[in-house]
Amino acid sequence: MAGDSSRAKWRERLGFGGRNSARSKTRDGSQYDLIAASATSSQANVVLRPEIATLPTTAAIQRLTDASASLPAAEPSASPDMALHTSPHDTSANTATVNRAADTIEAGLHIVFDSVRDGQPPRVAEIDVVAVHGLNFKGSDNHARDTWTKGDKLWLKDFLPASLPKPARVMLFAYNSSPAINATALELADHAQSLLQWLSLEREASCPALVKATLDKTYKSIVEATCLLVFFATPHQGGKHANFGDIVAKIVRTALQKPKNDLLKALKRSSDEAVKRFEQSRHLSDKCLVVSFFEGQPYGKIGLIVDKKSATLNLPGSREKQVPMDADHSAICKFDSADSLACKLVLRTIAAEVTRALEIARNNYGPDHTLSNEGDHKCLTDLRVTDPHDDKTRIEQDKGGLLRDSYCWVLNHIDYNRWRDERQSQLLWIKGDPGKGKTMLLCGIINELIKSSTRTANIAFFFCQATDKRINNATAVLRGLIYMLVKQQPSLLWHVRKSYDGFGKQRFEDANAWVALSKIFASILEDPCLRNTYLIIDALDECITDLPKLLEFIVDKSSVSSSVKWTVSSRNWPRIEEDLGTVTQKVRLCLELNAECISAAVSTYIQHKVTQLAKKKQYNSDTRSAVQQHLSSNANDTFLWVALVCQGLADVPRSETREKLNEFPAGLDALYERMINQIHSSKKAELSKRILAVVSTVYRPITLDDLMSIVDIPDKVASDYESPTEIIGLCGSFLTLRERTIFFVHQSAKDFLFEKASNEIFPSGILDVHHTIFSRSLRAISGTLRRDIYGLVAPGFPIDQVKQRDPDPLAAARYSCVYWIGHLCDCDPSKNATGDLQDGGSVDKFLRQDYLHWLEALSLLRSMSEGIASMLRLEGLLQVSIH
What we know:
It is a single chain. This protein has 38 helices and 20 strands. The longest helix is centred in the middle third of the chain and has 24 residues, at 341-364.
């Protein structure tokens, strides 16, 4: 055994140093941004648009769940605009914080309120409000703030956040908007470009800039994210008195010798600029709602600055809400009290339209969306442990296809309909003995839900499989369900990103993964924008790791929202019965209590399988009748038994079919016993048992290439078979092959081997099998790996550009590379691997000769995080062995 002096050497070989690694965490979440902009007079535009800061969407519908709005403010200077939409929340961004009213505000975005800092209680902002002021006739240094302020009250900061449906962050956008004093050469389009750039960096957008955004593909996502626009006395066709201001501005400009700009020109009713902007505004996305506030009081002797005709877009249907204000142009967006009628009207209207926009988003979100940036894609990739769609397809194919007539009985069952239709029935628990068709029943339910939902609901599912370590634990279940929910409703990704950012993939895999994922899932379930959702989990009894945690989570969350319904299946296990029995809003569907329905379904299945078998084997009518009669008499309402017998009959010569029928006994255990006896009496019994032992012990299904490396198959025996698939045939019907990957035909088959045939399969115990897998894995790795095995040449080659080679030089070592340390740890190394852990032992030699090659292989297999976790386990094992 390695001595104390070897500890530092081992740590050095494994890459462990004494330095502490620092980890920085950034707050990032999908937020709504509200942008307010003001022109010269007291007018404002409000744009409410949904944009998930963490996810980009190509369809405006997708953004609807996260709203963005723009509100303008006004004094007789120029109309202001505001926009609300989602963006990543990062207070460390290049935005200044405005703390005092007297501060001189520089051009750019300035934070005046942040719910995470100013909220009671503090909460991460989900809505960003960006206020954009209008023309600045007086050349005030604080025009960006004064536009929205009456007395000492900045209503965007003091009143608006409390009225919004989600926690918010409020920012002011400042720019030089003086038409005369201190004027610049920048024109309206330039300021719009500047604003859009800021917003695109923050994943936001504002109403006045939307016209430019529609013309610039760079800002396409801003347009697509827009779901609500709000205007305050905004002169879409120019104001009546813009020409008077132009004259004044021209005099001042001439005196100060400042360059001309077109900010005031845009307000002229008859100007080409104003007409062009009006026409383009009318053609913004038809998925946007619009609120147009217009002034109802004259501005002194001048009268109405912007009349109703100019302040409204007159959009068709219910898209635009036109709201008169009892205020003149200078007061329409300034309030010193949240209790004033004018302020109440503005705040409540905005809140109501935000809610309506979110509801539209919720009802209209579709699954065909893209994620917004590389970070979103990386997050989703790291979250993915499996694609449940692929698992469902594989399961259906392994079982010979999904036969609708074998499950459609449940669609008319009173318990199923009660769960589907009653709001208070939120959990459906389907339970039954092995082989009763629970998995295929759930596959059928999933298909029917997808068909009936017409893409208006989320349908997320997960199939637990005890024989696959990737998908036999509670953490994997949550990862799979969250993955499917985000794929269908991308706006939900921000719940994941705010936990993921700063941690990366380890967030989903380290010791705290369950805690993090359960919080993420809980947050998703409580999201008011979550569409109607169905969550389906098959085979709870095959969740080997942390099943109690998963059951507790289901019990706790199954009643959180009436829009979320759960379906789970399991065997008749007392532990599951005990936990799920505490759920009050559940429906229990026991297959044994529905024997008549199951019997009819199995009969239909038998008819289907016999038809396939008769066609393949060319049975005559007598043989076909005999097969059907035997299956019907002995099936005991068990789908799996029928499938296994038909699989066995497929290998029986047609002429011997009738005499061999009686060799297939009734009952699964009796059938499994027959299969074991056949293996025991075969010429290759020992090889078959070694294969079954390895396949029973590995942590996930292995490929044929893996099997040839891990199992000691003599060269002569391997050469006797035209294909390695025939070697799998040695194991009777316990195993099945799908695309060169080996699976048990059913979990009950593996259970039988452990519970009733362990002396046959594990004569020296399972620890010995673990050690054998470890030893042969290490040998396979050392014999396969080499420097630059994929021939990439250039160091630091981007992994996303690496494609698996064909033929793949890593094919025979894929499983071994990832799991050899796991099998070493599970073989009771203090008794079975003492020599392997000594200086000069197999592990020492491997780390000296192939450690770097192994790291390269892990990166090519995209399993570096698993490799790091394994190295930590090995370090812990070495520390124990040293002491």
